[in-house]
Description:
By secondary structure, this protein is mainly alpha-helical. It is 48% helix and 0% strand. It has one domain (2-52).
Amino acid sequence: MLQHKVGLPADFSEYNISGEALQMVIPAVMKDPAALNFPMPPELIAAIGQRVVPLPVK
Length: 58
C-alpha cells in the first residue's frame, strides 16, 4: 500500500486522539469548503473517525 511505502501509519492511534476531540472533527469536516461539493452526514464522518481512531469502549 502507498501509505506504508511513504511511512504513514495504518491508523491514527499513535496520535492519542480522545473521543472528545473526535467529536469536534464532525462539525469541522461539515464546515470544510469541500463539503459544499461533497457533503457527508455526521453519521458517516463519525463512522470514518471510528475506523481511523479506534477508541476503547467505556
